[in-house]
Design goal:
The protein is built from 15 helices and 29 strands. With 477 residues, the chain is an alpha/beta fold. It has three domains: 172 residues, FAD/NAD(P)-binding domain (3-Layer(bba) Sandwich), CATH 3.50.50; 114 residues, FAD/NAD(P)-binding domain (3-Layer(bba) Sandwich); 146 residues, 2-Layer Sandwich (Enolase-like, domain 1). The chain has a five-stranded parallel sheet. The chain has a five-stranded parallel sheet with strand order 11-18-12-13-14, covered by helices on one side. Helix 12 crosses helix 14. It is globular, with a radius of gyration of 23 Å.
Length: 477
């Protein structure tokens, strides 16, 4: 019996995880899989783009080299843009005029960067002016690296995670960097005013200038960027302009294929669209009216989709995700989960502000349960809070005990170390005892540390504590 043809459009982090989940369930043997990617090479970890901008080789963030696809019998069609899915004929149409048949198709087109309509931003050919960049791909980072020189000035538009990471990487390369942020608060999607202020202080201590409640109105320069004009009339000289103004779901392919779209591609609990044989997941997908722009929900969706497609658990359903992030933003530890502030009169808010340490901790409690938290500069309680939030477990009578405890309230074995992949300390210990005595080995064994990377410090501590004496002697020699 011939295999069904499964086409996956998009080769980002979501597809990378979906392929792993399919492989774990025997799904790769069940299908003849073709992956279409617009970028060259295999999948990579977009969260770690700052490492490439900082000077590391692109291979440092690659999660699936082309050899992986060959080894598993997955056909990778790189450098290829899919322009239409003909759902009647079940054909994939590409920009180069080729067509390929499919039986099932998964849209994992992700998101695309927002490019504001700034006066002077585009050249006569409609391309970004020389010296202006979006911050989205490895190619973007390599072009910025080639353009940036120590002593140059750079303006970064956007004070979210990507903008701050780009600012830190450019500052570390010797550039004079200014971040321009529309909101008064840096990382306003995750932090409140106090948390944003704490983060700003630490960003400025790193040598980066910050202008909040400002926008860029225009770019000046004839053949290349020479500077920007802010909405208050201020001019800032700039040799390099980085646009990190957010993203939006990439739905142009779905629209061209008459696949129902709202803000994102509309899917149900099996990640199926209204058209038979067409699925979507990740940043491009809209589930129950919600879009998810962080990686953990994308991977949760990948698990459900792999269950359904492989037939290993056909009753599996995606019911939505609880949002939490734990990141190192330009060198500053930040964690956020749930709501930012009280929404009901009965909600309780607890805050600890440490001005001298530039640290901030906040809890929002509803009916004895944690419904929101944010931590800046002191994130020691994150693992405990994530567990309480994710499981809906009752908070202590004095919630500040959780923030101030020197040891986790969660049993050590159950404590989450890697939030991205939900790997517990027990899982890490088991991997180390089984011989995984490096960050790379633990990542291969458990996936811990292969997401945002914020848990690598804890992983290294566990390795140092638990690895066998022989391994320590071998490293010392």
């Amino acid at each position: 019996m011939s295999k069904k043809k499964l086409a996956i459009v998009g080769n980002g982090m979501g597809t990378c995880r979906l392929l792993d989940e399919l492989a774990a369930r025997g799904g790769i043997e069940r299908y003849e899989i073709t992956v279409f990617g617009e970028e060259p090479g295999g999948a990579y970890n977009r969260i770690l783009l700052n490492r490439v901008l900082s000077g590391e080789a692109p291979d440092a963030i690659v999660t699936k080299a082309p050899e992986w696809y060959d080894r598993y019998g997955v056909r990778l069609v790189a450098n290829t843009r899919v322009t239409r899915v003909d759902t009647m004929r079940k054909q994939i149409e590409t920009k180069d005029g080729q067509t390929r048949r499919y039986d099932l198709v998964v849209l994992a087109t992700g998101s695309q960067p927002l490019v504001p309509p700034l006066q002077g931003l585009l050249d006569e050919n409609g391309e970004l002016l020389h010296g202006a960049f979006v911050y989205r791909t490895i190619a973007d980072c390599l072009r910025m690296r080639d353009h940036a020189r120590p002593g140059d000035s750079a303006v970064v538009v956007g004070g979210g995670l990507l903008g701050l990471e780009a600012a830190k990487a450019l500052s570390d390369r010797g550039l004079h960097v200014t971040v321009v942020q529309l909101s008064r608060i840096l990382m306003n999607a995750q932090l409140d005013g106090i948390g944003g202020d704490m983060l700003r202080r630490q960003i400025e201590r790193a040598g980066i200038f910050v202008r909040t409640e400002r926008t860029v109105d225009a770019v000046y320069g004839e053949e290349a960027v020479q500077g920007v004009i802010l909405d208050d009339g201020t001019s800032l000289p700039a040799d390099l302009l980085v646009l990190a103004c957010g993203v939006r779901p990439r739905v142009d392919l779905a629209r061209a294929s008459n696949i129902p779209v709202n803000k994102g591609i509309i899917v149900n609990d099996t990640l199926a669209t209204q058209l038979p044989g067409v699925y979507a997941f990740g940043e491009c997908a809209e589930h129950q009216g919600k879009l998810y722009g962080i990686v953990a929900p994308v991977w949760e969706q990948a698990v459900v989709l792999a269950d359904v497609l492989s037939g290993s658990k056909t009753e599996s359903r995606y019911r939505g995700s609880k949002l939490y992030t734990r990141l190192k933003v330009a060198g500053v530890d930040v964690a956020s989960m749930g709501i930012q502030d009280a929404e009901l009169e009965s909600d309780q808010v607890f805050q600890i502000v440490e001005d001298r340490r530039n640290a901030y901790r906040k809890l929002v409690i509803r009916n004895g349960q944690l419904v929101g938290a944010m931590l800046v500069g002191n994130t020691a309680a994150t693992a405990t809070l994530v567990q309480l939030y994710d499981r809906g477990e009752p908070m202590p009578d004095d919630p500040l005990e959780v923030l101030c405890a020197t040891r986790s309230a969660v049993p050590s074995g159950a404590r989450l170390i890697c939030n991205c992949h939900k790997v517990t300390e027990a899982g890490i210990r088991e991997a180390i005892e089984g011989g995984a005595e490096s960050l790379e080995a633990i990542g291969q064994c458990t996936r811990a540390g292969t997401g945002c990377g914020s848990c690598k410090g804890e992983l290294q501590q566990l390795i140092s504590t638990l690895r066998k004496p022989s391994a320590v002697l071998e490293q010392a020699s």
